[in-house]
Write a structure and sequence with these properties.
The chain contains nine helices and two strands; from the N terminus they run αααββαααααα. It is mostly helical. The chain has one domain. The longest helix has 27 residues.
Length: 249
């Protein structure tokens, strides 16, 4: 004990609590991004293990069949306009639409004199799409054959390319744009819109019968992990003035 009656254990406890308080007030977004990154990677590999061991077949089949009319497996549940809406939603995860969205954001960044941020965005989105393609080639899971496909498919099933590329593109773009803009409301809006679109794309893939549910969840997990990684890297590069810093909030 020192002269003022302060025990070493008390000082350690105060230091620990002060550290958590500082993290909570200054580094909460970083902690959340690390959690999402870790959870996404863990979830993806858990699902991949289930798929490789054929342990997810039962729940996949049950969920897929639950979205079909009991007397006609070629007909998704609901009226025709819902099926058409499903095709519209699934198109939001197509390569053509994602390319247009990405190029539009790149143009916005370039016009705002954020050339290095635009380059980082291009690398981040392209890298995520390449990762999705490599994973599909690596697992090479067959497409669902329980029901007819209500849209054309060309590639393997796991992970869902539309789901993962939608998560990669929309969440990564939202993450990077949130680093450009300091307003908390705008950052929340970008993230919420990105999450909603990503969810709609994935759900539509199962509804149209072109993916198993585990394909979609794996795509979401991998895409969310990639977006979180990109946000952390963008933050690190901004702090080192490699890419342009955001304006003061």
């Amino acid at each position: 004990m020192n002269g003022n009656g302060d025990r070493p254990g008390h000082r350690i406890i105060r230091t620990v609590f002060a550290g958590f308080a500082w993290l909570g007030s200054h580094e909460l977004p970083v902690l959340l991004s690390v959690v999402v990154l870790s959870a996404g990677v863990w979830a993806f590999f858990e699902l991949a293990d289930e798929v490789v061991e054929n342990e997810a077949v039962g729940i996949d089949e049950a969920l897929l069949l639950s979205l079909r009319e009991p007397g006609d497996l070629s007909d998704p549940i609901g009226p025709g306009w819902i099926e058409e809406t499903g095709r519209d939603f699934t198109a939001l995860g197509s390569m053509g639409v994602l390319t247009v969205i990405t190029l539009s954001v790149l143009g916005y960044l370039l016009l705002g004199d954020r050339h290095r941020t635009a380059l980082f965005t291009l690398i981040a989105v392209s890298g995520g799409m390449l990762l999705s393609t490599l994973l599909k080639l690596g697992f090479d899971r067959p497409r669902p054959d329980l029901v007819p496909h209500d849209t054309t498919v060309y590639t393997a099933s796991f992970p869902s390319g539309h789901s993962m590329m939608a998560a990669v593109t929309y969440l990564t773009l939202a993450a990077i744009l949130s680093r450009v803009h300091g307003a908390p409301l705008l950052k929340a809006y970008l993230l919420i819109v990105a999450v909603i679109i990503t969810l709609l794309v994935g759900i539509s893939r199962v509804y149209l019968g072109v993916h198993w549910p585990t394909d979609v969840v794996a795509g979401w997990s991998g895409g969310a992990a990639w977006a979180s990684l990109c946000w952390l890297v963008a933050r690190w590069l901004q702090r080192r003035h490699v890419v342009e810093e955001r304006p003061s909030a």
